[in-house]
Amino acid sequence: MVNSSQVTPVVPLELLPLQTKGRWIVDSRSQRFRLKCVNWFGASGTQHVVYGLHKRTLQDLVSTLVTWGFNCVRLPFSLELFFTNPPVPGSKTRAEPAMAPGISGMDAYDQTVAAITGAGILVVVDNHSSDSGWCCEASALDGVWFTHEYPERRWIEVVWGSGSVVDGKVLADWPSAAERAGNAVLAENPSLLILVTGLCYGHDLRGARDRPVQLDVPGRLVWTAHSYHWYFWWHHDIFAGKGTGAACLGLSLVCLVMAVLVLGRARRSGRRGTTPQACLEVAGAYIGFTGLVFLLYSVATRSVTSNEACSDRGRRDVEPFLQSGSVLLALGLLGIFLSIALRVWQCRRRKVAGDQESGGEASGASPSHRQGCMACVVPVLVGLALALGAVAFFTLSTVSYWLLVDHLDRAWGFVLEEGHDYTAPLLLGEFGTDKQDDFWQGLIRYITEKDLDFAYWPFNGQKWNYEKGWFIEETYGLLDSTWASVREDWKLRDVIGYTSPGR
Question: Which chain regions cross the lipid bilayer (predicted)?
């Protein structure tokens, strides 16, 4: 256990309580106070205690947090932990002498909070899930604030009293539920900050535009959101990033050059296409190109899973692109097919006319006729070139920073805009990675430029394998599996600006 009398607190008591002013969190002197947090999970799982105490003491782990420069820890817990208060398996706390074998989950949680706050580090008490375990299955209700086992009334009773239940849709009820719970907390302690997360795994705060949360005590609301690369379909490895985009761009240019060469030979043969054909080819190709880009964008941004834990707002934003893209692509393909049909029909008509002029002699098609008929492949080549160009445009643009900013601003970044009813600070409560890719670099840039409060996921060096029943590597963790060393120095440097000695 960290003895508070023996350490200099990370956050001096005279700076508390914190409050909000516009989009900022400020201290008791009304100076900007930036929460630099890390998630330390385990208590919300089936082992009922933060992970790592099987290898190191609380004091050792908290000292690491102090050394690295974090001023805040987000501690997830489950409703099941609170209501059942199960015993912690002794093997999970064997390195912590202050936790006797069989200690209850809530006592272990309280001791963890005491150790962290004893070092002057702030704690975000995070009701992470209802059932103990890994959160959350897309088909389950565990991603929202109520379940059949733990209705809203019991959720509010966890630490702050009782409240009423209002039936209705998730999207409609959440702001009111957040207000009832937040006001219950503030009735007990008006100095606390109330963190309200978005729907759909914390990624969607769009409902705040239409229905912002209003608490009884002003200056206490902090929005919180999550952001991982899997929220963004285009950042999966399906397109392999810039390499595929460059390859598609090259193939697109090859197809265009081939189309120009074929068309040039056909024109030199004297077989020029008609105006309707030219119009259909050009219009069809470019309309189809636009439609394909719209469709790709729609598929990429329409990553909200349809289930009770998610609203439909992620879908709503891309419906215009999806519908217009489908129509444009259909029209473009129709134009290209019609132009091909026209060319084939004209080619056959010229062949028949040529046969009649030659008196029916089986002399075969003339070279000029063959060159003219070759123009039939022009719209195919142009269409293929533009299709590949659309894929190239999509893959090259999706790794760009502007698209990430646009998506994050629409999902939750807008709450930082001053002068609105929904304006409040935002804590990026979960974000993490195991690779230094374009998305990670873009997200770190966004956090820096927006000067966001944050909580990296996670501090842990290991996590519990629920299927096999033992600890495995936590590749997103800041610690390695020994719980004593940094896993990847670049990650810690990006998150908190800390570089391990000797690196």
Answer: 244-266, 278-300, 320-342, 376-404
Residues with Cβ < 8 Å from 451, sequence gap 6 or more?
34
- 234 within 8 A of 438, measured Cβ to Cβ: no
Omega before residue 87 within 30° of 0, cis = no
Given pLDDT bands bounded at 50, 70 and 90, which one contains residue 256?
Answer: low
Neighbouring-strand partners of residue 383: none
Crossing angle for the helix pair 242-268 and 367-374, to the nearest 10 degrees: 150
Could you tell me how far CA 38 lies from the centroid of its own chain? 18
Cβ burial, residue 501 (10 Å; 0-12/13-18/19+):
exposed
H-helix or E-strand spanning residue 202 = helix 199-202
β 462-465/453-456 pair status: unpaired
How many alpha carbons fall within 13 Å on the CB side of residue 454? Answer: 20
Asked if 35 and 71 touch (Cβ cutoff 8 Å), the reply is yes
- Give the whole-angstrom CA distance, residue 290 versus residue 335: 14
| Residue 500 CB coordination number (10 Å) | 13
Q: What is the pLDDT of residues 108-163, one digit of tens each?
A: 999 999 999 999 999 999 988 778 887 765 544 444 555 666 666 665 655 443 33
Distance CA 201, CA 371 (A): 60
In sequence order, the β-bridge partners of residue 77 are 127
Q: What percent of the chain has pLDDT over 70?
A: 58
Token duo for residue 84: 């059942």
Strand 470-473 with 194-197, pairing: unpaired
Distance CA 398, CA 392 (A): 10
Q: How far apart are the first and last CA of the chain?
A: 30
Separation CA 92–CA 111 (nearest Å): 15
Is the pLDDT confidence value at 398 over 80?
A: no
Selected residue with higher pLDDT from 94 and 6: 94
Contact by Cβ (8 Å): 446, 405: yes
Q: What is this structure's pTM?
A: 0.75
Cα separation of 407 and 232, whole Å?
9
Read off the pLDDT of each residue in 222-239 and give the average, rounded to a whole number.
73
Q: Domain-by-domain residue ranges, the chain?
A: 4-12+21-234+404-496, 242-398
Q: Which residues, 6 or more positions from 31, have their beta carbon under 8 angstroms from its beta carbon?
A: none
Asked if 452 and 443 count as a contact pair (C-beta separation under 8 A), the reply is no
425/74 Cα distance (integer angstroms) = 17
Instruction: Out of 3.20.20.80, 3.90.1640.30, 3.30.1440.10, 1.10.1040.10, select the CATH number for domain 4-12+21-234+404-496.
Output: 3.20.20.80
The position carrying tokens 């610690």 is: 479
Please state, in angstroms and rounded to a whole number, the distance separating the CA atoms of residues 340 and 373: 11
426: Cα within 13 Å, side-chain hemisphere: 29
Of 132 and 339, the structure prediction assigns the larger pLDDT to 132
Peptide bond preceding 17: is omega within 30 degrees of 0, i.e. cis? yes
